[in-house]
Design goal:
about 300 residues, alpha+beta
């Protein structure tokens, strides 16, 4: 019985994913169920987060439903991610036939080898390999000839590298001289040298956290909001990947429980829908919203 119900749910999901749409009669005939059971399945899909549309007599599921957004995020690789996988396969060498086959398939699909043999690419790949080894063995490295656009200098840095990020384009490190966590661009390094010294400041390592609103920082700040139907729907339309941060409170309200690295991103969302949102937790965020409101009121008074 359970397998039959699951089979009906999956069959219905596949049919409704077709943008052409189906009538009630067609769906009942294809799945071989009654109209009453079909409406039960409709309710199940809605509760699972699917957006069901009816155009005339035809029903279909909106591809922007949170489920599809999360599924694509889970199974799809971007071009940069595929290039990172390809670079890792290059670093693994040619000793494994499976690795060689995977590398060959990716090259056929993406034509990565066009740029792989350039001196600059080989240089960056070698730096990434040395840094990866240092992270694995928890060793310091010397970044030789790092060109910093911020300070307009070229200098050597002794660092503890602990996290490769942005598809191996950047490295998160703890710098001994400044006693700060910093992010370095690998393509700005003349070369990387291994230092035969283990990490001494592992407890000081801090990774960069990028929140749903694309703000980054070392700090994570938890916020809880009570959303009405309007703000919940707009939140999912603008940030479909945020579906997992929502949970129902009642039929018309949802709890948004999320961590952010900066109040500005989520603040923009809250300020635009303030009448439909209640701040449940985070006094500092409440103070931030109040200060923003006062700032905007002062601007209006001076215009």
């Amino acid at each position: 019985m359970r397998n039959s119900k699951l089979s009906n749910q999956l069959d219905l999901l596949l049919l409704l994913s077709d943008t052409r749409g189906y009538t009630i009669a067609e769906l009942c005939e294809r799945i071989n169920i009654s109209r009453r059971n079909l409406y039960y399945l409709f309710d199940f899909l809605r509760e699972a987060g699917f957006v069901l549309f009816k155009k005339g007599d035809l029903y279909h599921i909106d591809r922007r439903s949170p489920f599809f957004a999360q599924l694509l995020k889970t199974i799809q690789f971007s071009d940069n991610e595929m290039r990172t996988i390809y670079n890792l396969l290059l670093m693994a060498g040619t000793g494994s036939e499976v690795v060689n086959q995977l590398r060959h398939k990716l090259d056929n699909a993406y034509n990565f080898s066009v740029n792989v043999n350039s001196p600059q690419h080989r240089h960056i790949l070698n730096n990434v390999k040395l840094i990866s080894t240092a992270i694995l063995n928890k060793r310091m490295v010397r970044i030789v000839g790092y060109s910093s656009p911020h300070s307009q200098t070229v200098s050597d840095r002794i660092v503890e590298p602990f996290f490769l990020m942005n598809n191996n384009q950047d490295i998160r490190c703890y710098e001994l001289k400044t006693k700060m966590n910093k992010t370095f661009r690998i393509n700005r390094m003349e070369r990387v040298e291994m230092v035969d010294t283990p990490w001494l400041y592992e407890d000081q390592h801090r990774q960069i956290f990028t929140d749903l609103f694309m703000f980054s920082g070392e700090e994570r700040m938890r916020i809880k909001l009570r959303l009405g139907q309007l703000s919940r729907n707009l939140f999912l339309e603008e940030y479909p990947q945020g579906f997992n941060y929502l949970s129902p409170i009642d039929d018309n309200h949802w709890l948004l429980d999320i961590e952010v690295s900066d109040y500005r991103g989520i603040g923009r969302f809250v300020l635009g829908l303030l009448s439909d949102i209640q701040i449940i937790e985070n006094d500092k965020f409440t103070t931030f919203i109040r200060s923003q409101l006062l700032h905007h009121l002062e601007k209006l008074e001076t215009t």
